């Protein structure tokens, strides 16, 4: 009996291992369980680059030995050696800070304390060592003081003698009520003074003492009470007369709830996640404190041009016989994002509308709070783009040049984000860059005579580093070749530390002189031997014609002719506003490796930068306004048609998959384009946009209260009855971004509709971006098997 049981156990074990080894059919040298190890398979790539203040060392985070956590390294330009930094020396890593005008001293904050670096002596002076912490240090206009923030208040430290001055006294809570006597008490007080000489003399002595104390006491700042708000920012004018403070008022929005099922305690734990779109919104309010007059005032928003304008979409919801009015009776809600001063004590404030349609740059008279418009960035869809941002709490790329009257900013006025200047005295504007390309970043040189610019001027598929005179003119390209050049300029501006990658070459650090066309010298080699043992594809970038005539870019991964199976898979990237068709190492590097694996197994893979993707200008960026699942979905359908007509793909053998936004599009594809796609896998998918966050969703669809039709035609859950082909849903239960409730609600909808051709897989410990290799492996094995079964008939 025992022998039989042993034989049975052996047989069962053999079956188990046999099944495990054949979890999927594969003719590639790549294995899902290997490349889904992520960084441990590819190599841990360097990041977080910074320079030493003397421009002789490059610091970066790296993990070439695949340790449990990353380490800190530095490259010495003199010895040309890369050295691992011991943890006890991590505090020596330079922090970002502010240099004085002559670039001889730098002030910075680290671990809540302030430090002053002297470039000549290369010595660092620790200024503070406190528990509460100091931050945001700058030099005063005369460079004799360091101005910084501690808690809610602004202070000044004298570099020469160490004296400390407090500029503000901003306190949480409400102002204490003043002692006021009622009428009865007032009568008694007057009578006592009239009847008794001692009372009269005592009152006189008290008054004289208070007046003398007032004369002898040092002047203190007015106490400003801010209730339950918090101080977001503090800015002081160079003459130190005006202080602008911005208050953050957190909205009392209802938060969603989530559960943690696997943890150390063994008990399921509930936690708050985020509010949903359409609820009350947090605000920023800016005030000016005039130290000379000891007064505080805010701004009259009625002065803002266009403040009463209604968004265009509201006209569609107008009913009744009365003529539609395109103006509100009350001003729109706005956010005062930031206020900045120039060297002449002029002020500029950046204001955003809560409905996402406007950004104003306004000149402010700091004595009166009166506005004058410098630039209005208006978009009937939503304001955004590189250097502008679609996040309402972002200042964007704005600042003063070497001429304090000239303010630079970025705008999509021409359809692409470009660099502009405006004279804040005359209002005269000047466009500095132009063309069908985007300025992705722009920063001033130390002397403020040049802009250093990152742009995709050469091609939307490459990003290069340029310089340009601050007044405009020739744009000089410094880096060359294909790929992405992430540049970190040395403090002396003589060297570039470049984090560079190509389509099939992951990120590594290089160094080159700050001169056009110079060769780069490699500092790090991060990829593993296992990664290097495979000949990774550099996918070809193609374009195909969409139904409206637009040329849509895509990456294509082709199989060898002898393995081609005439089936294809379309990958849909996430975020919507993200670029994945380019010549650099993809943020979706696991998917990139999976696509090589699929091509080895005979599939043709198409990876599309559909409408809504980043890198192609304003019209592309906003093409999904009020209808996500419109042009972004039709681009996938047209991509499938391209595969059939140009690459001989069987129209009945096309699958689709993606995560987050890509999961959303996958659902819309199976629900609304079932004639095109035979199967799909939706990862961390949005199923109902009314349940997503406010910042992202309200840009694209307004709010569900004001624009319900936009939400209904953009949300997969309203089209679930159209499901005909196999659908695999995969979701992490710790995803506090696209929350599990999304797919649970869709699951219930599919159950009630009587649909049976779908499956759901939940991952108990995974957030929005998976972390565990076992989860990645399980997820992509299921996706691969889905396509094998339903596109090729392989069980």
TrEMBL record:
InterPro entries: AB_hydrolase_fold, Peptidase_S9_cat, Peptidase_S9B_N, Serine_Prot_S9B/DPPIV. Residues 207-221 have a biased composition (Basic and acidic residues). Residues 1-20 form the signal peptide. Residues 112-192, 235-507 form the Dipeptidylpeptidase IV N-terminal domain. Pfam families: DPPIV_N (PF00930), Peptidase_S9 (PF00326). One of its GO terms (biological process) is proteolysis. Keywords: Signal. The keyword Signal applies. GO terms for molecular function: dipeptidyl-peptidase activity; serine-type peptidase activity. Residues 596-791 form the Peptidase S9 prolyl oligopeptidase catalytic domain. Residues 199-221 are annotated as: Disordered. This is S9 family peptidase.
